[in-house]
């Protein structure tokens, strides 16, 4: 599945794909659903947002070129995971935001 040029995909139910590529400001929103993919690649300011009751699992997650993966506050931190990946690579200004307070001292 390829999402390009500012497009948006709101997952429903259970989505299973081999490769998910999100490019050029596109976004994927996973709430009250589950997304499973062998590989997820985000580039060029794209985003993957994991909301309440949203679950994402992948073998390889790459967050590149100012893209963001964000777990919202509503995901909570229960017994289940909201994001599972065997390998996570964050490069070139990418952001993995697990919604933990950050403090500068």
From TrEMBL:
Entries under InterPro entries matching the protein: Pectin_lyase_fold/virulence (IPR011050)
SUPFAM superfamilies in UniProt: Pectin lyase-like
Domain of life: Bacteria
Name of the protein in question: Outer membrane autotransporter barrel domain-containing protein
Lineage, highest ranks first: Bacteria, Pseudomonadati, Pseudomonadota, Gammaproteobacteria, Enterobacterales
């Amino acid at each position: 599945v390829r999402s390009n040029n500012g497009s948006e995909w709101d997952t429903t139910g259970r989505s299973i794909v081999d490769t998910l590529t999100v490019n050029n400001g596109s976004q994927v929103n996973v709430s009250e659903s589950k997304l499973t993919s062998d590989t997820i690649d985000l580039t060029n300011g794209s985003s993957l947002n994991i909301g309440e009751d949203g679950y994402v699992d992948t073998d390889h997650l790459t967050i590149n070129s100012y893209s963001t993966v964000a777990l919202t506050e509503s995901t909570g931190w229960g017994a289940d995971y909201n994001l599972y990946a065997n390998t996570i690579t964050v490069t070139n200004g990418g952001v993995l935001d697990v919604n933990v307070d950050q403090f500068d001292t």
